[in-house]
Design brief:
- This protein has 17 helices and no strands.
- It is mainly α.
Length: 359
């Protein structure tokens, strides 16, 4: 009983652990019943358990002959992969899969007297799982630019950066652990403190971005084949591609299909009666660009015409009129396609007025 009520002195890193723990618990509450990001709960639950054991071990409250915390290095890799897979495919892992992939972490409880070996195996596990997650997200983005006219709205590039930073943090953490016999205790403590701050910040960013993600591409599983090269699968030559593209292009321009805000490859397939896979190949070879770039080029061409019309319209009105969902996306695509912002285009064209090119 005396041990339970005895005062405990907390180091600065323990304060960060408590703050980090509060962030993870808050994240668990905020996620609630959001089905599309439910796998994030597994990551946050592992964070909570890791931080709880850290606090208990470092303050001598949990008295054990060996460290428990190294086993969690075997859990975060699968957890991040599941989360990325759910973002991409929309399905959460079954309880059987969770148990299967977390079984190495549970088995490692029998080997906690060799923490360095557990950490080494856990680090290898993280490299494998995070690399697979990066590859999956890369395929997701390949498909979105081939099938969506608004790939920016469904992109998850923020998750790519998180995974890359996690890999870098893990590698430098391995350096820190291997320098323990050589470096001074004070220097290592400062390094550990900074690491914990970075992980807490990264977790906060993950929670915020996952909750704020406006929408996700729902048909990746059906169109994943578009991430692969399709030349061998489509029995058409370049000459046929150009001829077919001219017909497709004529249909799109005639009916101004590109002005539909969420115009997709499936919509075009419905309009033309051509399969999505073949359409993707036709546009890639006929327009020499992917579906997203092609549609946005048509939108920007239309926007340029409207920017110099009389009476002039605001940039926001034009952005919505040609099919964009936001002014920021319109500005970014306009600058990419023309090398100028809309206002710069107006000025160089000599049609700038005092009203609306800046709005």
């Amino acid at each position: 009983m005396d041990t339970l009520i005895a005062p405990v002195t907390l180091a600065p890193v323990n304060i960060i652990h408590i703050v980090y723990l509060a962030i993870a618990l808050f994240g668990l509450v905020v996620i609630g019943d959001k089905a599309r990001i439910s796998s994030l709960r597994i990551i946050l639950l592992l964070v909570v358990l890791l931080l709880a054991f850290n606090l208990l071990e470092e303050n001598g409250i949990f008295l054990a002959t060996s460290l428990i915390t190294p086993i969690f290095t075997l859990g975060f890799g699968p957890a991040f992969y599941w989360f990325c897979r759910q973002l991409v495919y929309g399905d959460s892992p079954s309880s059987k899969k969770i148990l299967l992939h977390l079984s190495p972490m549970l088995l490692a409880l029998a080997f906690t007297q060799w923490p360095q070996a557990v950490i080494a195996i856990g680090s290898l596990s993280q490299i494998i799982y995070l690399s697979l997650a990066l590859r999956l997200i890369g395929r997701y983005h390949k498909v979105t630019v081939q099938t969506c006219s608004n790939p920016e709205d469904v992109s998850i590039h923020w998750m790519t950066w998180i995974l890359v930073l996690l890999l870098l943090l893990m590698l430098q953490d391995l350096v820190r652990l291997n320098l323990q016999p050589l470096a001074s205790i004070e220097w290592l403590k400062r390094w550990y403190f900074l690491n914990t701050c970075v992980y807490a910040t990264l977790t906060s960013y993950l929670i915020v971005m996952a909750i704020r993600q406006p929408e996700l591409f729902e048909r990746f599983g059906q169109l994943e084949f578009l991430a692969e090269k399709t030349e061998e699968a489509v029995s058409l030559d370049d000459q046929n591609a150009i001829s077919l593209f001219q017909k497709v292009d004529s249909t799109i321009r005639k009916h101004e299909l590109f002005k539909q805000p969420r115009f997709s490859l499936r919509d075009l397939a419905t309009e033309t009666g051509i399969q999505e896979k073949t359409l993707s190949w036709i546009i890639n070879h006929g327009a020499k660009r992917n579906f997203s770039e092609y549609i946005n080029q048509l939108r920007i061409d239309a926007a340029c015409t409207q920017l110099i019309e009389t009476p002039p319209k605001t940039v926001l009105e034009i952005a919505f009129a040609v099919g964009f969902n936001s002014k920021s996306t319109f500005n970014a695509v306009f600058k990419k396609q023309t090398g100028l912002t809309p206002s710069q285009f107006c000025k160089t064209s000599g049609f700038i007025t005092d009203i609306n090119c800046e709005k």
